Amino acid sequence: MDYSCSSYRLNILVLGYIVRGPFAGMTWHHLQYVKGLDSLNHKVFYMEDSGESEYCCYHPDRGITDSDPTYGLKYLKRSLEYLKIEIPWAYYNQHKQEWYTNDGEKPFIDTKKFDLLINLSCSNMLREWHLSIPIRVLIDTDPLFTQVRNLQSKERLSLSQLHNRWFTFGENIPTGESKVPKDGFTWRATRQPIVMDDWNSPFQEVRKKFTSIIQWESYPSMTFNGLSYGMKSASFLPFFDFPSKTQTRIELALGSPSAPRKELRKAGWEIINPLSISKSLRLYKEYIQQSYGEFCICKEGYVISHTGWFSERSAAYLASGRPVVAQDTGFTKHLASGVGLLHFHDTETAIEALNDVMGNYSIHCKKARELAGSYFDSRMVLEQLICSSI
């Protein structure tokens, strides 16, 4: 696809959440932006900021959170090496007022050399030195909840206001077809970029299980104008006994201390510890590619507000040639559903979708990969993002 701005080669600063949250799902999500922009011949820099909290860095090996970035820095290096990404990067530790970089310098304070900043998933505060960058893009990957935070939290509103371009995975928000409350920002639609070569599937033999990688509760439910917007825990209620209604095996890599694992197992769900697949990009990729497909129950807030959100994880399943059966958030207005990608509203339509995939598996696998190339190829997604920003 041709774009009038495709010849621009920009200096781009990407802000993400990898050192502080060294989990493979988030890392794949963010580094697909980095690698995709780099492959388009932009000059890409990665930066992360500790922020002000003393509890900013998680250590999966010890199960604690503190301000020490040692584990996360090593994890970032390994992840960049795995994806063969060679770019300048830096981590700013406010608690010690120290920079950690891969070249021993402080390359990001002189931000006048940057043309564009991309703050992924609202994950970093903007400091004074960022504000000289002329184009500052905020990527909302948590639609509805981001907008409600802007309306209820002065701190989050102030962060959003420091940007001057706003993009959202809630593709129905810009069209006015969602029920997301207006927060005063002009949101434009975007979606997860996928570097397709990273997801070529070498596995011919797959486990005959649908899988899903989920957080039961990422944070507390939100209430706005008398309406409650819940997490996946709320969406699971009508589906709690779903395994008893289908012959399809479904495995959940289930996070969150509040998840009722014992009760879910009793109901027929197969449960594994998500840390077993999230400590490295390779393990996470292999888990997806050895799955039969994805069965995706979405956050209640996404569904009832009709955001049009589609998971970055689901895009990786599709790119791996693995069919996705996903609860409809309104994404069917933007993505072709029926083969390779199927949607459901209730247990009956979910069973129909799973049975369709099981009965026509090779057709659905082939179409899944085609859909990923049509809708999520990083070259297309990131060209559109850049062209809409400059």
Which CATH-level-2 architecture of the largest domain?
A: 3-Layer(aba) Sandwich
Radius of gyration: 20 Å
Number of DSSP-assigned strands: 18
Give the total of domains. Answer: 2
Shape: globular
Uncertain residue ranges: none
| Percent in helix | 25-40%
- Major sheet characteristics: 8 strands, mixed
CATH class bucket of the largest domain: Alpha Beta
Treating each run of at least 4 consecutive H or I residues as one helix, how many helices? 13
Tell me what the structure shows.
- The protein has about 400 residues and is of the alpha/beta class.
- The chain folds into two domains: about 10-195 and about 380-390, Rossmann fold (3-Layer(aba) Sandwich); about 195-375, Glycogen Phosphorylase B (Rossmann fold, 3-Layer(aba) Sandwich).
- The chain contains 13 helices and 18 strands.
- The chain has helices at about 25-40, 70-80, 145-150, 155-160, 230-235, 260-265, 275-280, 280-290, 300-305, 310-320, 345-360, 360-375, 380-390, and strands at about 10-15, 45-50, 55-60, 65, 90-95, 100, 115-120, 135-140, 165-170, 185-190, 210-215, 220-225, 225-230, 250-255, 270, 295, 325, 340-345.
- An eight-stranded mixed β-sheet has the order 6-5-2-1-7-8-9-10, with helices on one face. A six-stranded parallel β-sheet has the order 15-14-11-16-17-18, with helices on both faces.
- The longest helix has 16 residues, at about 25-40.
- The radius of gyration is 20 Å and the shape is globular.
- The model has no long low-confidence stretch (mean pLDDT about 95).
